[in-house]
Amino acid sequence: MTATIATMYPLPRPSGWAVLFAEDSDKDLDFDEGFEEDDLHQSKPPSRRPLLWLLLLVLVGGVVYWFLNAPTRNSPNSPSMHTAESLEEAASGPSVEEMFPPMFHENQTVVLTEGLQESMLMGNPTNSEPGPIVKAGEPLTILDGLQQLHGWIYQVRTITGKMGWVSEEKLKKS
After folding, report:
1. Total number of domains constituting the chain
2. CB burial class (10 A; 0-12, 13-18, 19+) of residue 4?
3. Domain span at 118
4. In angstroms, rounded to a whole number, what is the distance separating the alpha carbons of residues 36 and 114?
5. pLDDT tens per residue across span 55-110
6. DSSP code at position 72
């Protein structure tokens, strides 16, 4: 019976493809949904706060350095005008009347004076570093001389190649 009813009253049935193409094409396909979210979470420009902290640290360090090294005017330890003048005279070196010629010259061989058994040489002309120890009678070669306030000091080299500085009073010609 069903075959007769379907043949008697045919119902128009659209095909499946026709239904798909017949859908409403006014739908707005929103492909830029992610862009709206990015606008909300947009990154901020980098902060300049670390740069300001660094600048402040350098400024504070400079002020502290200046305070520690600045000369004070009313300090009880500051030298008076008379001592400042005497310090300037001493720093300028001995005057022409006080200068005296060196007793020894370069490449001259010398020895320690007889009263000394052994002596420690200075490591530098200011006597702030120790140098090698030399025995009495050991020949020393003069390399250089330097005049200081108390007299001449000489840079010497031993036979073994050790070098140091010694004052003129401790030396005699060999």
Report:
1. 1
2. exposed
3. 109-173
4. 99
5. 999 999 999 999 888 776 554 454 444 555 555 555 555 554 466 788 888 989 99
6. P
Q: Is 50 left (phi over 0), alpha (psi -120 to 50) or beta?
A: alpha
For residues 110 and 140, the answer to whether their CB atoms sit within 8 Å is yes
Q: Does some domain include residue 163?
A: yes
Give the integer Cα–Cα distance in Å for 133 and 135. 7
**pLDDT, tens digit (0-9, with 9 covering 90-100), for 17-51:** 555 555 566 666 666 555 555 555 667 777 888 89
pTM value?
0.44
> What is the amino acid identity at position 143?
L
Q: How many CB atoms lie within 10 A of CB 163?
A: 16
Q: Quick check: helix, strand or coil at residue 129?
A: coil
Measured CA to CA, the distance from residue 24 to residue 4 in angstroms comes to 36
Residue located via tokens 């000091």? 153
Note the pLDDT of residue 141: 92
Q: What is the CATH number of the domain that holds 121?
A: 2.30.30.40
Please report the pLDDT score of residue 11 as a whole number.
Answer: 64
Q: State the average pLDDT over residues 7-18.
A: 61
Percentage helix, strand, coil for the chain under 3-state DSSP, each rounded to 5: 30, 20, 45
